């Protein structure tokens, strides 16, 4: 602060905590700084604020009162025709860059007035400077004549005398700017040669943070609208700070160049892949018919909230976006064709495998059929070589049935008896002593197999033998055996 008694304006962040708003505080005669003006910038996220700079000065206590504003649309660099730069930028020309404007216009209200500020360089010190002019008379004279009311304001008249003001940097390495009133020409003929009054310092912009007004020198300015001069000095100082001492991209809200399509969004997969995988999992009898190929449709938003392009940068962004959309459509078309070709190849291979398996199965069936045929022919030939067995004769119904014959062994030859047995009065024929008897009906059986004691083999001894009596000593009675049994 140069002097606390001088009116000083401080640039501070907005009280409402809006990032693109600011407050201008005023301190006079050492008092505490109080809000005097409100600075407002357009919302950077709004499409209408792209590629331009705007600032407006409102009253701090009455937000609907607008004192003045600045709208600055920069000029842009011409697109490069270099093929190398176009190739490095993905097939599109490099983006145009904003140029530092050589002038800007301050629009004042009530009364309406436009102040043009020209940017240049000092001839002597080679430091930047900004020059503007303001009329000494801004208001019309009160008059009851209707013809005076139809006349334009004095500020718009060419015959109205004007005062010349200049913002100048104190040094190349300094950040202080001085606003001064150019000295009047004292030559009688009105030429600009010599005889100029020295410049009158009106304000100092200290470190691009505070503006101090030289109140004693302001009273030397002969003009009807000192409030308009104050507004012009504040707005011009703010534009010098933000435009000519700031970053061009941030100041003009220049959006970044669109990223490449591959990094911006991944390519969409073919919608038929899921259907193909689903059909592969189903059996052949249950598989649905193949879906018809659908052309990829790219939905482009027709209703755009942005205004029509009024600068080369917006047109370049539209061209880049159009080129990216075309590349995306071409890439999707290539991927669709590649997917269709791969699917066709897979289906063709699957059909070939099925045909090959069917042929192999048919060959196996044919080989098995030939083998069975050969075995059948071999068995048939062997059956033809063997003699046929005689068929059994059918029985004659007129003859008696024949019974099966049994082959018995030949009967033993018996010696003839010496004498015919005589009848003893018994119904059984008795044999002579010492003669063996044989069965008439069962030849080959004889009683000679019996032991000499007349007992059958395996017969247990009787009770007489147990008591010690033996029948070998005397004659023994023999039982007459049957000639039949």
Average pLDDT works out at 76
Task: Report the principal-axis shape.
Answer: rod-shaped
Radius of gyration: 69 Å
User: Which parts are unreliable, with pLDDT below 50 for 5 consecutive residues or more?
Assistant: 260-304, 421-429, 434-449
Helix content: 25-40%
The main pleated sheet reads as: 12 strands, antiparallel, barrel
Q: Please report the number of helical segments.
A: 9
Helix/strand structural class:
alpha+beta
* Sheet with the most strands: spatial strand order: 1-2-3-4-5-6-7-8-9-10-11-12
Q: Terminal Cα separation, in Å? A: 170 Å
How big a fraction of the residues is strand? 15-25%
What does this structure look like?
By secondary structure, the protein is α+β, with helices and mostly antiparallel strands. It has nine helices and twelve strands. The protein has helices at 83-88, 146-149, 215-218, 226-242, 248-251, 261-264, 272-281, 312-385, 463-466, and strands at 8-13, 21-27, 34-40, 53-59, 66-72, 103-108, 113-121, 128-135, 162-169, 177-181, 200-206, 210-213. A twelve-stranded antiparallel β-barrel has the order 1-2-3-4-5-6-7-8-9-10-11-12. The termini are far apart. The model is unreliable at 260-304, 421-429 and 434-449 (pLDDT under 50).
Any key phrases for this structure?
twelve-stranded antiparallel barrel; rod-shaped; 26% helix; alpha+beta; 485 residues
Short description:
This protein has 485 residues and is an alpha+beta fold. 26% of the residues lie in helices and 17% in strands.
